[in-house]
Amino acid sequence: MFLNNSTLKSALGAIRGYMREPILRVKNLTTRLQMGQHAIAVVEDLSFDLHPGKTLALVGESGCGKTLTALSIMGILPHPPALHPSGEVNYKGKNLLFISEKEMRGIRGARIAMIFQDPTSALNPVYTIGSQLMEVAELHLGLFGEEAYTRALKALTEVGIPSASERFGDYPHQFSGGMRQRVMIAMALMCEPDILIADEPTTALDVTVQAQIMELMRELQKRKGMAILLITHDMGIVAEMADDVIVMYAAQSVERGNVLSIFDHMAHPYTQGLFASRPALHKPKEKLHSIKGSVPPPDRFPAGCRFHPRCPYAMDKCFSGDVPNFLIGDHPEHDAKCWLHDGSEESALKLKDRKDRNER
Fold first, then answer.
1. How many Å separate Cα 191 from the centre of its chain?
2. Is residue 138 part of a domain?
3. What pLDDT digit, counting tens, does each position of 13-31 carry?
4. Residue 195's Cα: distance from chain center in Å?
5. 86-91 sheet: strands from edge to edge
6. Is residue 3 part of a domain?
7. Who contacts 174 (Cβ-Cβ below 8 Å, separation ≥6)?
8. Residue 45 domain-assigned?
């Protein structure tokens, strides 16, 4: 069919518009845990878009709310103590927080898959790897017998399990940590999901295996065009994998933006602290920096900026009230929940102090 210039421009515009449309849109997601007489927020007012073929990294220390965000999206929060989340998790026009469990089961694992942090606990020790993969094929793809076997074997081969047909009848304990993680990836990708949630996928793996797993995820993403929500505390992995970044602290997003903007213009002191705590390859003997203190428990979040007890640049205005999100420089999609960027003279002096410290 011949297309004139006007029709072609219109069609290209529609394609670009479709490509920009997020596959998942999270808006004001809030998850609370019942603690005694109180409902305590462990994910608070979190919003983000996840696009096909792109990777969004949720970054922060343990206890910041990253994994609970993923469990909220997947609809697998532990009840109790978790209460039903509020807000929106929109996937293809449906708010996943308010669909039936039956409908959610058709999406979970098939269209939105998750790799858990510990493959040892996620795999059933009394069933073979092959039988667990075939179960996924039966439940989500409607394949049985020889068809299920063929699909499961293909999945193992795709993730680089050597001699996949020979390892099909092995049990999880017969695989190394890296190979178990590959099995988890195979299981997650069997149905070719639109979204893959990877929760600390390289924890407890050595550096060489970490690099292999990251490369495998990149390759499969490129081939299948899926969106990845990557949960990590490692800024090195963020630099390698992410297109966009949300830094979480004490249940809130404290900084978010394009990965290049975040790395070039780290705005929040917490983001700077995470980056500074990484070992420098070119200075292996240099003492590691650390962020003093620890993430407070959810029932003891401080008033005002939740990071102020650990922040070297805290001001009086940081100790009470809500902290707005301030745009950072010329980057309309980069903002930080930090008073340092309110444009006041006091904040400007603090920023100068921070710059001077970093240059020493």
1. 20
2. yes
3. 434 444 468 999 999 999 9
4. 11
5. 38-50, 24-35, 86-91, 94-95
6. no
7. 167
8. no
Domains in the chain, number: 2
Task: State both tokens at 260.
Answer: 């290049």
Q: Output the CA–CA distances (angstroms, integers) from residue 95 to 58, 91, 154, in the order listed.
A: 21, 6, 33
Last residue of a domain, one of 190, 217, 240: 190
Distance CA 231, CA 73 (A): 13
Give the gyration radius of the chain's Cα atoms. Answer: 22
What is the number of alpha carbons within 13 Å of residue 140 lying toward its C-beta? 25
Please identify which residue in the block is written with the tokens 């940081």.
Answer: 318
Residue appearing with tokens 């950072």: 328
Q: Is the peptide bond before 81 cis (omega within 30 degrees of 0)?
A: yes
Q: 349-358: long-range contacts (C-beta < 8 A, 24 or more apart)? A: 350/313, 350/315, 353/313, 354/269, 354/272, 354/313, 358/272
Give the rounded distance of the alpha carbon of 74 from its chain centre: 13
Higher pLDDT: 264 or 2? It is 264
User: With contact defined as beta carbons under 8 Å apart, do 197 and 231 qualify?
Assistant: yes
Query: In the listed set 174, 190, 206, which residue is the last one of a domain according to the structure?
Result: 190
Token pair, residue 311, equals 């922040």
* pLDDT, mean of residues 36-59: 96
Tokens 């290209």, residue located: 12
The overall average pLDDT reported for the chain is 89
pLDDT given for residue 12 in this prediction: 38
Q: What is the pLDDT of residue 290?
A: 79
Its domain, for residue 127, covers 112-190
Say if 161 falls within a structural domain: yes
Dist CA 166 CA 86 (whole Å): 47
Structure tokens at 148: 């299920």
What is the distance, to the nearest Å, from the Cα of residue 220 to the centroid of all Cα atoms in its chain? 17
Q: Please, is 287 exposed, middle or buried when counting C-beta atoms within 10 Å of its C-beta (0-12, 13-18, 19+)?
A: exposed
Residue 234's pLDDT band (cuts 50, 70, 90): confident
